Records
---
Amino acid sequence: MINCMFNNILMKTRRAFIPKITGNFTLIIILVLCFAACKKDAVETYTNKVSAFSSDSAKSDGVITVQTGILPPVTQQSFIYNGNSSTTEFQITSTKHIFLYDMYFTATCPFIEYITIKNYGVGNVNGNMEFNGGGDIAAGSGASFIVQVHYKNVDSSTSGTVAQLCLTNIIYRTDDNVYHSFYAENAGKAKPMCLVNNAAHIIFQDPSSTEVINGCREIAEVKLTGDTGWTLNSLPINILSPYDAAIPKTKLMIKNQDQTINTKSDSIILEAGQNVQTVINFARGFNHIAGQTEVLKIYAHVVGSGYNTLVTTMSPLNSLIWTDGLRMKLTGAKNNRFFKQPSGQSNFSQ
């Protein structure tokens, strides 16, 4: 009797999560994918205990433990540009033999269109998703759910929007035929992603010239690439010298194809073993042309006796500003949070 009552409640709970068809044709197509996901045993389970991830967040109800993976191939928090998807991983381990009945997700709507789990599509309807099934997990083992997150293309009004997928609730059954509802909370939150029209590609490389111009030497080169156009507004740089006197009080000069670029930067003084940071602000922005490679050469008045070395990198990211192809300016706060592209370093020696 009690078991029947619980099953009735469970079915009502499940029906509450089932979205209503709105009549939108595109939405219907996505819902068809969602129905295809209603197949049991869609995700492989493992007989050996799954090793712990390095995520700080995990939650357990004494039977199952849920944790969001951050190891490859999981995508770290980053910019996602048009046509790309991200990957996240949800790990479920269990101390008892269980059957995974339902998994519920929330997803930023409409920017996350759908997800795929083991090639089964689940549509995003009003910010909710349901994956029916998941298979058995043996006692002392676990299952790894690799989820591909597919995003809507952005426009000029939505570029810079942050989207996030969250595993919110799991319904599972134990061998005593009792159903359990598990709320993942922070343990089910995937890394947020920032949607942009395109990504900026900025790489530091060693100087290629030993020429002295007005007492200045080239100390670093910055290569700008990308298949789509974007604009560099402010470039933060960090300069380190492990040796004595390298740069006296001076301002940096930027050249591209022998043309001096109109920029502003603070005067800097560098001492041995010390980091100095400054920001190069481009007066009108430096426009990267789609499909081309531009090289910005950074010059400074380098003096001192003996062997001098400078290491130049892009830092701090909270001072980096660039504009995507839709003319949306990405502020330093978002770059500090989402810009995950390795930018390398430049090594100068005299």
---
Amino acid sequence: MLWISLKFALRDFKLRKFASALTIIAIMSGLAAFTALRIASVSMEVTAKYMVERALAGEVIVYGDGLLDLSELALPDFERIPGVKRVVPLVITLGYMRGSMVLIVGAKASDLQFVVENYVAGGGFNASDEGVAVLDQVITRDKNIGVGDIVLLKPQAAKAAYPLRVVGVAYVSLEIQGMGSAAPYVIVPLREAQHMMEKEGYVTLAMLVLDKGVDPERVVEMVRGEYPNAKIFKREDILKVVTKVVSLIDTLLLAVTFIGLAVAIMGTANTIMSNVREHSREIAILRALGAKGSHVALIFILESLFYGVIGGILGVGLGVLGAFSSKDLIREMGMPAFRLQIEWGTLLVSFAVAVLVSVGSSIYPSIRASRISPVRVMKNE
């Protein structure tokens, strides 16, 4: 009976090419949207977490009350806290360079690794260097600036502009711009930034890099015990916020894909129901020859399974291409670019959805087919 059901379904599939093609297209389009958006959603979540971890090298961030009022005298106290591996002080302020707003970051030469991911040209500065800067590749490209050029940098709160020699062009890993600011970076020595702001001995924040396995909450409590007025937050708190935002976006995207899947369900159900009506005579003959209702239902379930398998394979492939297109579209809209995370698990889930959609939509038509009465059909004939 299984062989007969398979032959029947394949014959129906071949004879009704147009209807079969439309059904496959409906499944393929719905699944392609589902696959593309799922890949984009997973990729955005992974990339967002990566950006936060790269942006904030320290698990605990300590601010002062104002723009630049965290005393460097507190840094040794932070270093003595059990579990703190390293303290990275930074000065962060806005400024202007060649008519454009920039984000000025003052850092020690030994801490450049926590700010710069890689150098496009040139390199970093040394602890003894003065009047030098490392520029974000964005502003060097837009303003046609190269290594060795002299640029004027004016902090927003300063009275005068300062000449700086460009020693490096870099990709900055301190992705503050990826979380809301559109300004490119200018990285200068920490002492240089303090001198520009006339705030020697003070920094904007200190990133506390912890040893592996250390509980950030315990470190926060110890810092707060010594400096109750300091503003402290944990990197994991930002990760939680990012995860919630991405989850909200994921829910909205998933709701959009349900529309395409609903079209696929209705299209498949309509095709199978139409086949049931057209083959009522053959169904009656099979029942008269001793076929059970489950055997008749199996015919149309197998037929819908063909639609699901073919539509699933094509939909997954089209969805992967769509994910690449959505990546380019999101970049053109000015949002942070994300790295596509194409995992076999996501593709298998998408394919399983196609099979479930096609088989599930054939259940009602198959039940109707199994209940066809041979006597009634022959009477109508």
---
Amino acid sequence: MLSIRPEIPLKNYLLNLTNKQDRKECGVYVHNLHSIIQDIWRQILAAKGDDVPWQTIIEKLGIHPQGFYAYKNGKKGISILMLYKLLRIWQKNCKKSTEEFDDKWAECYHREVLFGSHKGGYTRLPKSVTPRLSYLIGWICGDGNFGSYGNHYLIKISEKCTRQLKEVLIPLIEKIFCIKPKFYHIFEGGYALHVNSKPLFRFFQQVLKVKVGKIPAIVLSFDSTNKAYFLAGIFDSEGYVSKNRYLITISQSSKKFLVTLLHIFNELGIAMNGPIIHKTKLGTWYTIYSDKKREIKRFAEVVNSYHVEKQIKLQHMLAKMEIV
């Protein structure tokens, strides 16, 4: 069972979901902030003075009044950049301090909201890192894929074991983000999950700074529990449990990636060996490993596996150790 504690709060990341190239109807939208918008608008109208038409204020936002009232009445989500612009107008017209602006911006962040694009596709984004999310970050860093083109923002997870995708990863993504990945048979013996979501894509890339084959800086600040789940995610995506030997391995094309993993393992009191290099016609890759009973036991106690097949293999290996 993947834990939900301890939690590591994330700083207000709303602006991190935006992009310099975002234009009208192209950004990330926030839903369920209409009560805040209504309150702000009432204050702006009360402070504007009789000589200033309300239409003049809406013109500063660069939208049609009908569009603004859709935001205000909750019929449509508001883009993050539009929300920020509206708050700046509120701050100026109502003579609010920087502290009051920051408090209102924080209130927007901490509301229970959904994120989407102009065309919909709602998802929930967490306000904190939990072991569940740490595990998923590890999996994606180990063997995920990001791709964006046109209006498509794709997160892809490949895996040969369909049970792992259907019984672990799909429910995990649904619990964290309230979005269901699509399941594909991509080639003989291979399967994948696809999530097409601009908010989620930007959350991983621009908030968490997740890149495949690299250790995100945020992971280095995790507590020991979240680091352990992160390592479990990497192991379940890129690890191997031997059937005939006392041996567990993690392989990657990046030596630097594995060297950083070794440091994290050491922090948790687990000694792994390597990296050792492998060269074939298909390319070059590296491996870290443990073939010591004591270290494999320590790995199982602290990190473990949540892979439906690898977990069973690891338990069989531990059982053999007790018999011998």
